Amino acid sequence: YGTQEVNETGHLTIGGVDTIDLAKTYGTPLFVYDLALIRKRARGFIETFKQLGVKAEVAYASKAFACVGIYQLAQEEHLSLDVVSGGELFTALQAKFPAERIHFHGNNKSYTELELAFDSKIGCIVVDNFYEIQLLKEISERKQQHMRILLRVTPGVEAHTHDFITTGQADSKFGFDLNNGQADQAFDEVKDHEYLELLGLHCHIGSQIFETDGFSLAAEKLMNKIGEWKEQSNFECSVLNLGGGYGIRYTEEDHPLEPQDYVSEMIKTVQALAEQLRLAMPEIWIEPGRSLVGDAGTSLYTVGSHKNVPNIREYIAVDGGMSDNIRPALYDAKYEAVIANRASHNKTNTYTVAGKLCESGDKLIVDAPLQQAEPGDVLAIFCTGAYGYSMASNYNRIPRPAVVFVEDGQHQLAIQRESYENIVQNDLPLSLKKSE
Ligand code: LLP
């Protein structure tokens, strides 16, 4: 992956930095992000649109991994930003991310969150439901402030990794249904509003997708709707946001496409329909999360105890687990790993990598081919950059790991390791009546 190599001492290096040195310097568990790889992915998407001559915004779906440092990098790489909560928005503002390039998502944005969006003058709100339309009208009228919006629609196309399903009415908690009149009603409610400026439509059909057909079909459905609205109300759509969802390689079973392959099909579909329906070509916005940061992240752990279950399997336990990577427990997600201090050795053993949390399902990898492992070794699990740290918890009161960025032989801490003090900082002692 990216800039990973094995150096002359047999250690795994990332971005020219020895991972064993990183483990010593910052401790484990540790997330290591390869910035060069994130830049490469971001440029891959941006260049594709440039080459195709299509106006576009590539918004980083920051739910995949959010912190001040990654928002700074996103800005440097000319990405826009997709945020889904007041917390992500606040973090982006702390990072001085240009507000006009922030898009705000969510199926239950609160009044306070929406006010923060208005006050910080973000670029666009992706409107999810009728209640939100009501709140937006109230806030914009009270503040007499304009806001650009997209309507999030559910096109009835749902993609799952290698195939997609189409349904007349998708059972989704997100967005206005495109097929049963909801989207039309939402359009009617916002189209002539004094302060809400409708740019166009948004959809997101799924995550970890390897096929382009689902994206194209969704694009087609949205364009047809835009064509209807143009005909009926002379609506000019300026933006079509087709969400994220591009798959990455976690294991050898995954065969991801290049950024250009993911987007060029759907752009062709949009272009063809724009011509056919006599619509101006809208700007295309996309929202990749996983495909920007997923394979750029590696988790380092220290190996501790072993347990052999004769004739069944051998466990090695590490100093983290489902508290820093819930994906195996939650989605049965698969990963590959290496003993980072013995990376040049052959993988002669098979271990199940267990976490340290009090839950039998806390296994990071089942039956992983690995080098011989001893207590004190450093285990590196690859491709943990998306939805790892961002979904981390303090279950069992385990502090969240540190996060370090590496590039060109340099390393810098992006998120400090949580301390036990951090863990108790919001706890308040009860005033208990003393028994006399
Ligand atoms: N846009 C919208 C509206 C989304 O809901 C999502 C992801 C994205 C963009 C980014 O999708 P990506 O490019 O990262 O696939 N926790 C799960 C993934 C949840 C994705 C939720 N929405 C996991 O760990 O696999």
UniProtKB/TrEMBL annotation:
<dbReference type="InterPro" id="IPR009006">
    <property type="entry name" value="Ala_racemase/Decarboxylase_C"/>
</dbReference>
<comment type="subunit">
    <text>Homodimer.</text>
</comment>
<feature type="binding site">
    <location>
        <position position="245"/>
    </location>
    <ligand>
        <name>pyridoxal 5'-phosphate</name>
    </ligand>
</feature>
<feature type="binding site">
    <location>
        <position position="327"/>
    </location>
    <ligand>
        <name>substrate</name>
    </ligand>
</feature>
<feature type="domain" description="Orn/DAP/Arg decarboxylase 2 N-terminal">
    <location>
        <begin position="38"/>
        <end position="293"/>
    </location>
</feature>
<dbReference type="GO" id="GO:0008836">
    <property type="term" value="F:diaminopimelate decarboxylase activity"/>
</dbReference>
<feature type="modified residue" description="N6-(pyridoxal phosphate)lysine">
    <location>
        <position position="63"/>
    </location>
</feature>
<feature type="binding site">
    <location>
        <position position="290"/>
    </location>
    <ligand>
        <name>substrate</name>
    </ligand>
</feature>
<dbReference type="InterPro" id="IPR000183">
    <property type="entry name" value="Orn/DAP/Arg_de-COase"/>
</dbReference>
<dbReference type="InterPro" id="IPR029066">
    <property type="entry name" value="PLP-binding_barrel"/>
</dbReference>
<dbReference type="Pfam" id="PF02784">
    <property type="entry name" value="Orn_Arg_deC_N"/>
</dbReference>
<dbReference type="GO" id="GO:0030170">
    <property type="term" value="F:pyridoxal phosphate binding"/>
</dbReference>
<dbReference type="InterPro" id="IPR022644">
    <property type="entry name" value="De-COase2_N"/>
</dbReference>
<feature type="binding site">
    <location>
        <begin position="287"/>
        <end position="290"/>
    </location>
    <ligand>
        <name>pyridoxal 5'-phosphate</name>
    </ligand>
</feature>
<feature type="binding site">
    <location>
        <position position="331"/>
    </location>
    <ligand>
        <name>substrate</name>
    </ligand>
</feature>
<keyword id="KW-0457">Lysine biosynthesis</keyword>
<feature type="binding site">
    <location>
        <position position="387"/>
    </location>
    <ligand>
        <name>substrate</name>
    </ligand>
</feature>
<keyword id="KW-0456">Lyase</keyword>
<feature type="active site" description="Proton donor">
    <location>
        <position position="358"/>
    </location>
</feature>
<comment type="similarity">
    <text>Belongs to the Orn/Lys/Arg decarboxylase class-II family. LysA subfamily.</text>
</comment>
<keyword id="KW-0028">Amino-acid biosynthesis</keyword>
<dbReference type="InterPro" id="IPR022657">
    <property type="entry name" value="De-COase2_CS"/>
</dbReference>
<keyword id="KW-0210">Decarboxylase</keyword>
<feature type="domain" description="Orn/DAP/Arg decarboxylase 2 C-terminal">
    <location>
        <begin position="31"/>
        <end position="385"/>
    </location>
</feature>
<protein>
    <recommendedName>
        <fullName>Diaminopimelate decarboxylase</fullName>
        <ecNumber>4.1.1.20</ecNumber>
    </recommendedName>
</protein>
<dbReference type="GO" id="GO:0009089">
    <property type="term" value="P:lysine biosynthetic process via diaminopimelate"/>
</dbReference>
<feature type="binding site">
    <location>
        <position position="387"/>
    </location>
    <ligand>
        <name>pyridoxal 5'-phosphate</name>
    </ligand>
</feature>
<dbReference type="Pfam" id="PF00278">
    <property type="entry name" value="Orn_DAP_Arg_deC"/>
</dbReference>
<feature type="binding site">
    <location>
        <position position="359"/>
    </location>
    <ligand>
        <name>substrate</name>
    </ligand>
</feature>
<comment type="function">
    <text>Specifically catalyzes the decarboxylation of meso-diaminopimelate (meso-DAP) to L-lysine.</text>
</comment>
<dbReference type="InterPro" id="IPR022643">
    <property type="entry name" value="De-COase2_C"/>
</dbReference>
<dbReference type="InterPro" id="IPR002986">
    <property type="entry name" value="DAP_deCOOHase_LysA"/>
</dbReference>
<keyword id="KW-0663">Pyridoxal phosphate</keyword>
<comment type="pathway">
    <text>Amino-acid biosynthesis; L-lysine biosynthesis via DAP pathway; L-lysine from DL-2,6-diaminopimelate: step 1/1.</text>
</comment>
